[in-house]
């Protein structure tokens, strides 16, 4: 089915009568093969142009209300169109632009304007993009505050997607996200960005995004708190190393060196290896506790357990890196290690 608007009046009519303009917006869907599509699209273009003409003619007050009707009709038809969607979207955007200009001129009730902008975006996710910079003067401080209340209420109404849950495409969720992100960009308030990002905690990436947003805003304490939450949620997954890196950076920045060492130690024990060992060494050196931490690492690697060979392989690798070939050979002989490390030992001996 193709979108079609029934229009009234003669083809040559000029749209300077608001009542006549309204009569063109009785929408319907035409059956396939309708022969008047071209004429109807031309008429729609005339309607949208007439909004700008009303503003130019000093009739911005009338243009505000009529533009809202035009935008709503065009936005409501967006999901029904199978052809010429781009043209319809452009018409809706142009109609909204005329509305913004008219609002700047007449300064309508800011609370009503804020409410209409919120409803437009939530009711018509496929509708035109609201750019708050174009409504700054019309909304004023009071209107923007009311707009924010509506955006935050919509955000609170979204159920949180928990870690590991599979999200699904949701047009309402997408509309709220777009609305809040636009407001956050307009106000420069990271709390708004965090609020909307926190509605989807399905992956470790989301925790990283939130922490990075707060870090960029200079709020290391809050960033660290979100990383710590992410570490708990993502425990045992491949995302942990990146979270640990960010957490350690925050701890060092805040002077919490003991916590930074603890995080590196935990990460090493979860995935022992030379790289994790060197990362632990770097932060423990910074905390002036490396000698003690090194002894703790070596004791842990030598403890018996189900993964004896894996741990011992790491131990041998570390001893080789430190240049203690004799200790590395003894450790390999006592508890074994991966063949690859044995080959390296032989090369060192040669």
Describe how the helices and strands are arranged:
Elements: E1 2-6, H1 18-23, E2 26-30, H2 37-56, H3 60-77, H4 85-106, H5 110-123, H6 136-156, H7 171-187, H8 190-197, H9 204-216, H10 220-233, H11 240-254, H12 257-270, H13 274-286, H14 290-302, H15 308-322, H16 325-335, H17 339-349
Antiparallel strand pairs: 1-2
Give a short summary of the structure.
Helices cover 70% and strands 3% of the residues. It is built from 17 helices and two strands. InterPro entries: TPR-like_helical_dom_sf.
Account of the 3D structure:
The protein is mostly helical. Among the domains are: 1-106; 109-202. It is 70% helix and 3% strand. The protein is built from 17 helices and 2 strands. The protein has helices at 18-23, 37-56, 60-77, 85-106, 110-123, 136-156, 171-187, 190-197, 204-216, 220-233, 240-254, 257-270, 274-286, 290-302, 308-322, 325-335, 339-349; strands at residues 2-6, 26-30. It has a two-stranded antiparallel sheet. It starts with a strand and ends with a helix. Residues 1-16 and 26-35 have low confidence and may be disordered. InterPro entries: TPR-like_helical_dom_sf.
